[in-house]
Design goal:
Elements lengths: L1 E8 L2 E6 L4 E6 L1 H4 L14 E9 L2 E9 L5 E5 L7 E6 L3 E6 L8 H13 L3 E6 L7 H16 L4 E3 L8 H8 L3 E5 L6 H8 L5 H11 L9 E5 L3 E5 L13 H4 L4 H6 L17 H7 L5 H11 L3 H5 L7
Parallel strand pairs: 3-5, 8-9, 8-11, 9-10, 11-13
Antiparallel strand pairs: 1-2, 1-4, 2-3, 4-5, 6-7, 12-13
Helix pairs in contact: 2-10
Bound molecules: guanosine-5'-triphosphate (GTP) and zinc ion (ZN).
GO biological process, one term: ribosomal small subunit biogenesis
Keywords: Cytoplasm, GTP-binding, Hydrolase, Metal-binding, Nucleotide-binding, Ribosome biogenesis, RNA-binding, rRNA-binding, Zinc
GO molecular function: GTP binding; GTPase activity; metal ion binding; rRNA binding
């Protein structure tokens, strides 16, 4: 049988088949030690093959195969330095919620997020939330940012989780896909998800799970089916992506506008800082690349290691 992993709590996995049947599954013993350097070889979102096993009238599943993933996001284990914890797999898209104020979302944060999501091969859609609260100047800021990010290929939507503005557009984009919601604390993730599916009170759920675990702060991701043929992965207590280690030379590849120009630079290992005949610097001088984006790029590759490597799971 084949199914999707909806929930993983240590050694048991909740798996749902295409037909909608739900089975509690474990991993096959040998499979567990098959050299996967992760604290959890199977993650929420994984597609797995399993066989049923009846034990004292109780039917459960034994997982013997994981299908190849289109992508996955990880978190570094705190105490097992070389191991990573896979948070979720096979994510179609992440909605990054942005607010101009209350709380402010800086472009450096947006750009770092986009670089990480690109490195993970996860598509990002930018949602500018709380537009119901903005005055004309703030709305102009939203328009300016939306223009900047649309120009480099990102879909941008102004929304309000409170008034319901453009919530239907978000739902349309979610149809038939597995989505995640991300962004700083207080940008309105829970409020928006509740506006999308009022019966799904994720926040309450996250709190009750935490309560069950007492002082222990470990959180488990979980996938939910929504009523309109969409799925979301909720990661309680986790607001962003973990950090991807990358070489300086690689960073530009995750800025679409820099990647598009790099073959026009004189040097094929151009870092677009001081090199002569640099297509990126030329584009910047001609206002074809946003200065804020270039500044974020420099921050990531130059010195700002501290900031860049800070685990943004814990700092939002
Ligand atoms: N005016 C207005 N307020 C909003 C909107 N969306 C969320 N809020 C408010 O912003 C506050 C934070 O919203 P949450 O949904 O809790 O934010 P969150 O991103 O889930 O926050 P964390 O759980 O800390 O990550 C709440 O008081 C919401 O009522 C919106 O579109 N307009
Ligand atoms: Zn260059």
């Amino acid at each position: 049988m084949t199914g999707h992993v909806y929930k993983s709590t240590g050694s048991w996995y909740t798996v749902k088949t295409e037909q909608g049947e739900i089975y509690e599954c474990r991993m096959k013993g040998k499979f567990r030690i098959k050299g996967i350097k992760s604290t959890n070889p199977i993650a929420v979102g994984d597609v797995v093959d399993f066989e049923l096993e009846a034990d004292n009238d109780k039917v459960s599943g034994i997982i013997f195969n994981i299908h190849d993933r289109t992508n996955y996001i990880v978190r570094k284990s705190v105490n097992l330095s070389k191991q990573t914890h896979i948070i979720a797999a096979n994510i179609d898209q992440v909605f990054l919620l942005i607010t101009i104020n209350n709380p402010p979302t800086l472009t450096s944060f947006i750009d770092r997020f986009l670089v990480t999501a690109n490195a993970y091969s996860v598509k990002t859609i930018l949602l500018f939330n709380k537009v119901d609260t903005y005055d004309e100047d703030t709305l102009n800021e939203v328009r300016f940012l939306a223009h900047t990010y649309r120009k480099i290929g990102y879909e941008c939507i102004g929304v309000s989780a409170i008034s319901g503005k453009n919530v239907d557009k978000v739902k349309a984009l979610m149809q038939g896909k597995v989505s995640m919601f991300s962004g700083h604390s207080g940008v309105g993730k829970s409020t928006l998800v509740n506006a999308i599916e009022p019966s799904l009170d994720i926040k309450t759920k996250a709190i009750s799970t935490q309560h069950m675990q007492g002082q222990h702060t470990t959180t488990f991701a979980e996938m939910f089916d929504l009523s309109f043929g969409a799925q979301i992965i909720d990661t309680p207590g986790i607001k962003g992506f973990g950090v991807v280690d990358m070489d300086k030379e690689e960073v530009g590849d995750y800025f679409p506008e820099i990647f598009a120009l790099k073959q026009d630079c004189k040097f094929n290992n151009c870092l677009h800082i001081q090199e002569p005949h640099c297509a990126v610097k030329n584009a910047l001088d001609n206002d074809e690349i946003a200065f804020s984006r270039y500044r974020s790029y420099l921050q990531i590759i130059e010195g700002d290691e501290e900031n860049y490597r800070t685990d943004n799971w814990d700092n939002q």
